[in-house]
Amino acid sequence: MKRRLASIMSAVIIGCLLISQGTNFAEPASEEASDSEAGASTVSESASGDKPEAEVTAASVDPSKTASIAEGMEQAAENEFLILYVNNATTEIAVQDKRSGAIWYSNPQDRADDSIATGYNKEKLNVQVEISYLDNAGNSLKYDNYTHSVQNGQFVIEKVEGGLNISYTLGEVKSDIDAIPKYISEDRFQTLILDKIEDDGDKREVEKRFKHNEDEKRYERRDSSLKGVGLKKVTDVFAKIGYDAEQIAIDNAASGEAAAGDLNVKLPLQYRLDGDQLKVTVDAEGVEYPESMKIERLSLLPFFGASGVKDVGYTLVPDGSGSLIYFNNEKTYAAPYRVDLYGTDATIYQPIKIQNDEAARLPVFGMKYEDRAFVGIIEEGDAVGAVEADVSGRLNVYNTVSPSFTLRNIAEVTLTNGWRSSTVKKFQAEPFEGDITVRYGFLGAEDASYSGMAKHYRDYLIKQAGLTKLSDEEGVPFYAEFIGGIPKKKFFLGIPYSAYEPLTTFNQAESVLAEMLDKGIGNIKLRYTGWFNGGINHDLPKSISVDKKLGGSKGLKELKAYTDENHISLFPDATFLEATRNADDFKKSKQASRFITGKLAKVYPYYPANFGENDYLDPGYVISPKVLPNMVDGFMDDYEKLKLTGLSLRDMGNKLNSDYNRSNVIDREEAKGIVNEQLKQISGSVEELLVEGGNAYAAIYARHIVGAPMTSSQFIITDETVPFFQMVFHGYVNYAGEAWNMADEQDSTHNFLKALETGSALNYTWFNADSSAIKMTEFADLYSADYRLWIEDAAQKYRELNEVLQDVQSQTIIDHRMLAKGVYQTTFEQGKTIIVNYNDTESNVDGITVGAKDYLVGGETGQ
Q: What CA–CA distances, in Å, run from 554 to 135, 202, 506, 507, 549?
């Protein structure tokens, strides 16, 4: 099956299918703004006295590369790489990449010519930030910075060193009539107003502007008569007698009227040039809004870099391993893309789960044109973040991708009374109040691809998170998960009781490992699941008691000695984020997270027959993040005594859960912070850390990732799956997908080609016992985990995979592209290339033939 062509690929030029034209940016349309549009906006120097940046000089940017900046824009800041511009009338911004001359706008510059957008959708093209909220009646409403701030002149622009601060006040503009109470009691009208007016003419002027309501014992404002000169006369009188905002607030409150402007939102938006990136921040400390507003979501720069109908290229979204949405793909019949980062929060109740989505593991998105691209990295607020994308033709003529952030989650509660029932909304008690930060990086023609976006994000992780490269490996890792013990219900004289069923003892593990070594499997990474505190569904890991039926502490010590002697890495596994119903010392009322409704956050498996909760099984419980620090401390104290050098974390890199306990809400971003601290502590105590899933915040602490995303959710709106995740981490973290024998895809040839394409290792889940041992247990899905069924094929696949990939384990993937439908090429940093053909027929691309379901190795060997 294997063929090798040394350096033949170096003579072949293979173009990417997605050639694009960025006309929207190279020749931006002009847009003028009148003085009146600027209204109450002001442009000032910062409080610290920083002067505005110098104007762009001819030497700043190569004139041959420079596109014209839109009219109405003026320079706000400049550094070695970028120039930031702002339109003082509309608050839209633009960024010019000095290296290429490309200009990126926050809003389309030809939006006035949009032939599809009408009404609200037309106005929305001017927006930089939008909030969605519910009022007290449960109505869903929206505020945006254009309609509710810019058009009313309710904003302030401040130039500061390296960027801009823009402070928006979102809400309705106060009218002069708001200084006059709509309703006022007879007593207060007499004593606070009429008795204080000395001039009889002024008194008559005021009296005729109010109507006396004898039934309500109050005076009511005549709005129809309070216009022009009449309105000015009354407001002047009120100002003279000292009837001020404090008094009108009292009268409004007494009559049940909301104070004018009480739904105003203060929203500060910051733009900073940071090296070759634009950093955009919503500063949490400056956000203000009334308690009556239940803000659900904030959308940031929804049209940044938007492409039009004449552009060719694609949008990158973080769907599983990564997905591309081709510009203008005409899939307006499909739902727009929107996926929350880091998978499902188990404290957001989901009674039905129909779609089995791949989690979005990386907080990254981007857009590629022919000769330029941008990549967005959600740096703060990512745990409450989502990525949204859409194609042209639905609401407007633009293809878009942008982040949004859930500030307050909502649950529905059904109340019943006899035959009647009603559904009410229950809000998260405390909203997310942290900073939101998104970085935008800009790529020139040589890096304008998802390969270039992966490199940019990897460079960011190296700089910001200390991601370090792998040393030369002995070969491709082989990940083997051994299942130790499981709980099993047994019977004595017809009476059921809970028992412990050992599937792989420590001694048996040595025998299986010896067999693997004999068959040529090397660089084994042994993940041992279910070895302490009662097996696979272990008790709370605040301490460690090695399961005696597996061999106890002595047996584990002997296994450790065997693995060390044979250069096998041992990773005992633990889970910290969920607890079983009967876990020892687990106090549900104090240690479990809660749903928004206040109920304990139970976790059931989903039943595939009806997509509902399999509630005939005992539930698990979500452990509150507040419990983690003490639990990890206790676990690590005992773990260090075992002198083990590796550790596997089943859920800390795979799941992220909140706690909506009303007395102490821990939102998802706070939970991420707590998990991060534990990962930092654990990684400092063990030599190697293995995590499952690979959420970005956990991946930076790991040397190994299993269950990494190998495909996408394949949403209808997307067009192509790409190994973006693998391109970020290859050469820095070892990884493998789901266990081959447990995966939905059981075609070993397909899985093998996917491993070659993505530079992935093999992964299997095995046990030593006979398959009958799992009958009448809740672990029927492990039926195919008998290692005897797989070891021969696994050994053969490993030897072949290792021959191809062993020399590139510590190299990055510098390029990946689709050559033809079902045919992909991966290029490693020292030139080695691998072409895989998933098709049932052979493929010929530019004279190079790859057999059906086969692969071809070329380029430099990488030695």
A: 63, 98, 9, 11, 12
What average pLDDT does range 32-53 have in this prediction? 35
State which amino acid sits at residue 214.
E
User: Cα separation of 303 and 791, whole Å?
Assistant: 52
Above 70 in pLDDT, residue 208? yes
Task: Please tell me the distance from the alpha carbon of residue 426 to that of residue 129, in angstroms, as a whole number.
Answer: 26
Instruction: Judge whether 445 and 369 are in contact, CB under 8 Å.
Output: no
Mean predicted confidence (pLDDT) in 407-421: 78
Token code pair at residue 753? 């080609």
Question: How many Cβ atoms sit within 10 Å of the Cβ of residue 731?
Answer: 20
Q: What is the average per-residue pLDDT within 681-710?
A: 97
What is the number of other CB atoms lying within 10 angstroms of the CB of residue 664?
12
Tell me the β-bridge partners of 141.
133
Contact call for residues 652 and 691 (beta carbons, < 8 A): yes
Sheet containing strand 854-858, strands side by side: 813-820, 823-828, 833-837, 854-858
Prediction pTM value: 0.85
Torsion sign (Cα): 625, 530, 780, 490: negative
d(C-alpha 650, C-alpha 28), whole Å: 50
Q: What is the 3-state secondary structure (H, E, C) of 388-455?
A: EEECCCCCCCCEEEEEEEECCCEEEEEEEECCEEEEEEEECCCCCCCCEEEEEEEECHHHCCHHHHHH
Distance (Å, whole) CA 266 – CA 155: 9
Predicted local confidence at residue 775, as pLDDT: 85
Q: Which helix (H) or strand (E) holds 517?
A: helix 506-518
Token pair 């691998």 in the structure block, residue: 834
Q: What is the pLDDT of residues 298-335, one digit of tens each?
A: 999 999 999 999 999 999 999 999 999 999 999 999 99
Average pLDDT score over residue span 638-655 = 96
Are the CB atoms for 807 and 861 separated by under 8 Å?
Answer: yes
Pairing of strands 155-160, 43-45: parallel
pLDDT at site 97:
97
**Residues 811, 570: Cα–Cα separation, whole Å:** 24
- What pLDDT digit, counting tens, does each position of 517-556 carry? 999 999 999 999 999 999 999 999 999 999 999 999 999 9
Cα 238 from Cα 232, distance rounded (Å): 10
More confident residue, 10 or 138: 138
Q: What mean pLDDT is reported for the chain?
A: 87
Whole-angstrom distance, CA of residue 421 vs CA of residue 424? 10
Tokens for 46, please give them: 């910062």
Residue 277 CA, chain-centre distance (Å), reads: 19
For residue 349, name the pLDDT band (cuts at 50, 70, 90).
confident
- 3-state helix/strand/coil string of 601-655: CEECCEECCCCEECCCCCCEEEECHHHHHHHHHHHHHHHHHCCCCEEEECCCCCC
Percent of the chain exceeding pLDDT 90 equals: 69
Name which of 698, 625, 129, 132 is nearest 406 in CA terms.
132
